[in-house]
Amino acid sequence: MKKIRLLAPAAVMLCMLVLGGLLFSANKTPARAAGAALRLGDRGETVRTLQEKLKNWGYYNGSVDGIFGSKTESAVQYFQRRNGLTPDGVVGPATAEKLGLTLSGTSGNKNQGDVNLLARVVHGEARGEPYMGQVAVAAVVLNRVDNAQFPNSISGVVYQPYAFSVVLDGQINLTPNSEAIRAARDALNGYDPTSGCLYYYNPAKTTNKWMLSRPIHLRIGEHVFCR
To answer: Which residues in the chain belong to E strands, given as ranges?
Structure first.
């Protein structure tokens, strides 16, 4: 009769732990990658930007509060149905692209240095202006980055010779307040109140004839915005 070798208690315990770990891994639901999509229950600035866009385009009539609730989900589904997307109420890459929305955590997410530099432009150029006007100033910078007539980086646009008065007078070095930082982030996430404007100025302070000759697209606070 063949002898059966018994495992030592420590070896038995080790086997049980390994087996338990394998079973747990096999049944564990993979965690959703942070920032890969927006869905019911999410909160934050990107959700607020989403709500603002949907509201401006007539898909959403709820509060712009940065909370992805059932009304926001319904608005997303409405947008998806109207734009040939799967109406699942989740803002994944395809829906975000249609919305012109940058999802946090994707390759398009701008680094903190860009946020800080853009916020310093906003703080220097538009502090005291309505919040939408502050976002609009940031959006003009980003619209220039995307336009072949200008440098293709935020720093290149900001420090282009004679482009911004805050660089000339040193206000670019002031510490931005929380509102300027929020405005910069909203613009980086795709919120553009100007609809593509490349220029802005204060009519009470500008004497540049070329700038004054450009057709005005909209006015926010003390600034006018032009294409």
So the answer is: 199-201, 216-220, 223-226
